[in-house]
């Protein structure tokens, strides 16, 4: 295809948007409504995911070492843990430090433990973080089997519940977003189909005068793209303004440790990009699928 | 130029539209296709521009065997023939000029050439002064002139017209026929399906009469031959 022809297709696609004013309005509205819904869910899900991630990140394995172990044994255990799959970090915390932390954590009540500084009942501990929080249980079970390990703690019972809750929340979110996307595709492609059925005569005439299918498709392809992008403008504006204000005013009110919203600055851009891409893809897809029907002569 | 060999066409619903036609149309000929409604005229015409495929037999147009052309190549074949219809088939959102220019744009002609040639053919059909008007702003006769201009803009060897005067008053019909005669004089083969008795009887040309899917008459300078 000559560059001049490509320019013609661009020009033609813009003209068609104007020529088919009300049909354009209908298609853009359909895109706007569904993308707004998709956008809101996206914001909710991504934040929920972020919060869940924060909670998960705090999960760690604490391996308490038996007092019978000597320095070499302790080092050997550390090396063995580090060499395991999926380990992110291994920190050694000697029992003196453990006691100091305990006393500090307990504040005034910590004074009661001061006498133990002479004869520390605590153990040396390896604090292990896994790359994937879900691996915590597997890693903990394995370490339990090592020599000189007195006990392994990772919040048994609590962690399993947390993980299953987070998983369910994530899956529900994914199902909702996928479902919404399908609805959007269906709704938008149907609207576009109606606008193109109205133009079936136009396609028929184009074929009669010798336009190839590719030649006919190009302006429709571009038109679908513009419809998708036009339809994404309002949802993006709406979500940007709302989220910016939510982040600015609501975030400082939230004091609960794990609940932290995604920072407005990169997040709004990310959501905008996602919405534009979804709009464009759905617009193009709907447009091409509808034209295809009339090109089978 | 155009040749049909043992052509039969049966539609999926069982209707036999064409039942064994053999015909040869030489370059530069002017042929009327006549016959009662439902006789198979339209199918006969449609097969010439590959809108319909024959069930059996072969059709050659400009040396191409139409039944064997792939669907995707049909538009390429149609670039070499001009078509005119009863309902004009103009793009309603395009001006007269744009409608004619479109046929040249699809074959990626140079813009300068398009401009020159489109004005030339609009002049030939006598509608140059209305080039910027939309079809809805033109009369039936004027719309048909635009359609004719479009059909000849790429200098096809064959022009196929399906009831081109069907929607026009007698006076306008004569004007349109004058344009067709002019086109034919320049060497373009013209095949025209028509119900217009006056035209066929006054502008004497070859007449092919079709009834029940068969050619029942093929005369060098024939009459319309049917009572209306």
Automatic annotation (TrEMBL), chain B:
PROSITE patterns in the record: ABC_TRANSPORTER_1, ABC_TRANSPORTER_2
Keyword Cell membrane: yes
Domain of life from the UniProt record: Bacteria
Subcellular location: Cell membrane
Pfam family, one: ABC_tran
Homology family: Belongs to the ABC transporter superfamily.
Free-text function comment from the UniProt entry: Part of the ABC transporter FtsEX involved in cellular division.
Protein name (record): Cell division ATP-binding protein FtsE
Lineage: Bacteria, Bacillati, Bacillota, Bacilli, Bacillales
């Amino acid at each position: 295809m000559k560059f001049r022809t490509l320019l013609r297709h661009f020009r033609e696609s813009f003209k068609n948007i104007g020529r088919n004013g009300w049909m354009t309005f209908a298609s853009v509205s359909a895109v706007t409504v569904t993308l707004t819904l998709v956008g809101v869910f996206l914001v909710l899900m991504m934040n929920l995911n972020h919060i869940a991630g924060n909670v998960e990140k705090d999960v760690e394995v604490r391996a308490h070492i038996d007092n019978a172990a000597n320095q070499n044994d302790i080092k050997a255990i550390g090396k063995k843990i580090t060499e395991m799959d999926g380990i992110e970090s291994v920190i050694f915390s000697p029992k003196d430090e453990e006691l100091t932390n305990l006393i500090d954590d307990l504040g005034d009540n910590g004074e009661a433990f001061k006498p133990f500084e002479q004869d520390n009942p605590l153990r040396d501990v390896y604090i292990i973080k896994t790359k994937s929080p879900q691996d915590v249980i597997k890693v903990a079970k394995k370490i339990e089997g090592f020599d000189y390990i007195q006990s392994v703690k990772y919040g048994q019972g609590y962690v399993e519940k947390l993980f299953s809750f987070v998983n369910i929340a994530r899956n529900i979110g994914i199902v909702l977003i996928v479902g919404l996307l399908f609805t959007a595709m269906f709704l938008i492609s149907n609207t576009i189909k109606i606008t193109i059925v109205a133009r079936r005569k136009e396609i028929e005439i184009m074929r009669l005068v010798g336009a190839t299918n590719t030649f006919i498709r190009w302006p429709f392809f571009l038109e679908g793209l513009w419809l998708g992008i036009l339809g994404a403008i309002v949802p993006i504006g709406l979500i940007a303004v709302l989220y910016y204000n939510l982040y600015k005013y609501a975030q400082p009110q939230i004091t609960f440790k794990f609940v932290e919203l995604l920072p407005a600055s990169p997040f709004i851009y990310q959501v905008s990009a996602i919405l534009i891409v979804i709009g464009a893809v759905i617009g193009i897809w709907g447009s091409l699928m509808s034209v295809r029907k009339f090109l089978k002569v | 130029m155009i040749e049909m060999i043992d052509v039969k066409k049966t539609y999926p619903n069982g209707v036999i539209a064409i039942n064994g036609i053999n015909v040869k149309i030489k370059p530069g000929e002017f042929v009327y296709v006549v016959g009662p409604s439902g006789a198979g005229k339209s199918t006969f015409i449609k097969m010439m521009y590959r809108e319909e495929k024959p069930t059996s037999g072969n059709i050659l147009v400009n040396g191409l065997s139409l039944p064997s052309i792939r669907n995707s190549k049909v538009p390429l074949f149609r670039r070499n023939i001009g078509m005119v219809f009863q309902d004009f088939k103009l793009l309603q959102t395009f001006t007269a000029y744009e409608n004619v220019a479109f046929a040249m744009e699809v074959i990626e002609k140079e813009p300068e050439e398009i401009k020159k040639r489109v004005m030339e053919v609009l002049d030939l059909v006598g509608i140059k002064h209305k080039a910027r008007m939309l079809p809805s702003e033109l009369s039936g006769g004027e719309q048909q002139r635009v359609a004719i201009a479009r059909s000849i803009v790429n200098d096809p060897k064959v022009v196929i017209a399906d009831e081109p005067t069907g929607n026009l008053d007698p006076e306008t019909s004569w004007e349109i026929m004058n344009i067709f005669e002019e086109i034919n004089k320049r060497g373009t083969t013209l095949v025209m399906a028509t119900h217009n008795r006056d035209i066929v009887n006054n502008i004497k040309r070859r007449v092919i009469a079709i009834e029940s899917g068969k050619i029942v008459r093929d005369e060098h300078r024939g009459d319309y031959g049917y009572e209306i």
